[in-house]
Amino acid sequence: MLEKEELISHFEGVRKRTLKYLGQLPEGVIDWRPDEGKFSIGDIIRHLGSAELMFFHAITQNEWKYDGHGPEKGKTLAEAIHYLEQCHATVLAGLRQLEPEMLKGKVKNVLGYEVSAWRIIMAMTEHEIHHRGQLSAYMQANHIDPPQIFGLKIEQIPKDESRRYGEAEEDARHQ
């Protein structure tokens, strides 16, 4: 298990990269959705905030409650992002107050199985990454280039011409 501050730092890094995506969105796409009945861009942003509170509640109360992601939590892009940031600040403050032993304690996951609380934090970050990928697809469908999460496109990383696919496996068999 990572130490509490490492978990928090990882979580903050995930959010920082998500905010880069949100910073690329024009106001006019807040209600865009790929199809009826699917999350809109605004729904995703508000859902991330509400889900973050849900995960933290599960860690501290050992029960799952979701407060929804409706437009009352932010009708405009700025309001939705503000809601997300408020939820994040609340959860970060709460995580910082948790005793390290609490993170090792068992809580029920959403399916009712007991897991260590620190795994719920990891699931919370995985959940956000999932929805950031969804936002990326939504952005591309709207002809908006999503930012590079680590600063470079894969085509900008130097190629290693000395190794071709399969060579490492071949080398390993001959040793």
Automatic annotation (TrEMBL):
InterPro entries in the record: DinB-like (IPR024775), DinB/YfiT-like (IPR034660)
Pfam families: DinB_2
Limits of the DinB-like domain: 11-135
Protein name, per record: DinB-like domain-containing protein
Organism of this sequence: Brevibacillus borstelensis AK1
Lineage: Bacteria, Bacillati, Bacillota, Bacilli, Bacillales
